[in-house]
Design brief:
This protein has about 150 residues and is an alpha/beta fold. The chain has one domain: Rossmann fold. About 30% of the residues lie in helices and about 20% in strands. It has 5 helices and 6 strands, in the order E-H-E-E-H-H-E-E-H-E-H. Strands 2-3-1-4-5-6 form a 6-stranded mixed β-sheet, sandwiched between helices. The protein is globular and about 40 Å long.
Length: about 150
């Protein structure tokens, strides 16, 4: 089965989002290398923050059915270059994390993510409250298994 590759900055909540998608409550640990798990590929945040790692992301995307760009709602800057999603040969969608954090600005996060992902669905999520997690699963699972 092909997988969804999750890409986002260090601390954006990628690993925590993965745990929420699998219904796990234990704390996430920092991803140090590519982690292949069931229908997901978790990538280290450094891969999206450093253009030297873009080749690795591109190569890995050929094993994927789609990519999920993750933007932290508490951040005021975008870690993806403009049009970043268009550089991948697979379907792209987005997730905004930490939407219920006191410093979250979901609208700004969506606007930042739209710079990298001009088209495609963006789901607002919170691993803490579970908001948007089922919606995100319903978006992603048919990409990896079109017969669902």
């Amino acid at each position: 089965m092909r997988k969804i590759m999750i890409i986002g900055a260090v601390g954006a909540g990628k690993s925590t989002l993965v745990k929420a998608l699998f219904g796990e409550s234990r704390p996430a640990v920092k991803t140090q290398s590519l982690v292949y798990r069931d229908w997901l590929i978790d990538t280290p945040g450094e891969y999206s923050e450093n253009p030297l790692y873009y080749r690795s992301l591109m190569a890995t995307s050929h094993q994927a059915a789609g990519i999920l760009l993750v933007q932290d709602a508490t951040r005021s800057r975008n870690y993806f270059p403009p049009g970043f999603a268009g550089g991948f040969p697979v379907k792209a969608c987005g997730a905004v994390t930490k939407i219920d954090h006191p410093q979250a600005d979901a609208g700004k996060a969506v606007a930042l993510l739209r710079q990298a992902l001009p088209e495609g669905t963006i789901v607002l999520t919170s691993a803490a409250s579970g908001a948007g997690i089922e919606e995100l699963k319903e978006l992603l699972l048919p990409i990896v298994d079109p017969g669902r």
